[in-house]
Specification:
Blueprint (H helix, E strand, L loop, with lengths): L1 E6 L4 E10 L2 E11 L6 H19 L3 E5 L7 H20 L3 E5 L1 H9 L6 H11 L9 H16 L5 H4 L2
Parallel strand pairs: 1-4, 4-5
Antiparallel strand pairs: 1-2, 2-3
Length: 165
């Protein structure tokens, strides 16, 4: 099974593609989709959609797992990230992917065993679980791989039906 994990954002969208064979995982590709701050929002959203669709066509994932938003105090930023997240979900739907969504707490729990783990702990575990030569950069990329790993673990559990949206 091939899983595309996504850490949504407007400036940076982290992505991670993993293959899962039983309980073994292998990183296929990972990185970030970047959009410049001075670009109008509608053009940034279009760039995210275009780049994501290109990744989907190239790697043909079976499932797409997306991190749900954690609302912080800046609602303007949250709205822009929500718009990007909508575009990400649309790209998955338009390309007939099975789409799953996970909260940051669920992701950290699946990766580290502790839902309130620090970002550094998640990065260390992602690097170890995927046997990567170095920690993925930037953090958004590590987060996207963590989302993919979380989905690989959750899809096999008895709770899997509760994660499918």
């Amino acid at each position: 099974m091939r899983i595309l994990g996504i850490d949504p954002g407007l400036a940076t969208v982290g992505y991670g593609i993993i293959d899962v064979y039983g309980n073994r995982m292998h990183a296929v590709d990972y990185g970030s989709i970047l959009t410049p701050a001075g670009m109008p929002t509608h053009k940034r959203l279009n760039e995210i959609y275009r780049a994501l669709e290109e990744l989907i066509k190239k790697y043909q994932p079976d499932d797409m797992a997306v991190e749900e938003l954690f609302w912080n105090t800046n609602q303007t930023t949250g709205i822009r990230v929500s718009e990007a997240r909508g575009i990400i979900l649309l790209a998955g739907e338009r390309n007939s992917l099975n789409i799953f969504e996970y909260t940051p707490l669920q992701i950290k729990q699946a990766i580290t065993g502790y839902g309130r783990a620090e970002k550094k702990q998640v990065i260390v575990m992602v690097t170890a679980l995927l046997n990567l030569p170095a920690p993925p950069k930037p953090d958004d990329t590590a987060d996207a791989l963590a989302v993919a790993i979380c989905h690989s673990q959750c899809r096999a559990s008895r709770l899997a039906p509760y994660y499918n949206n």
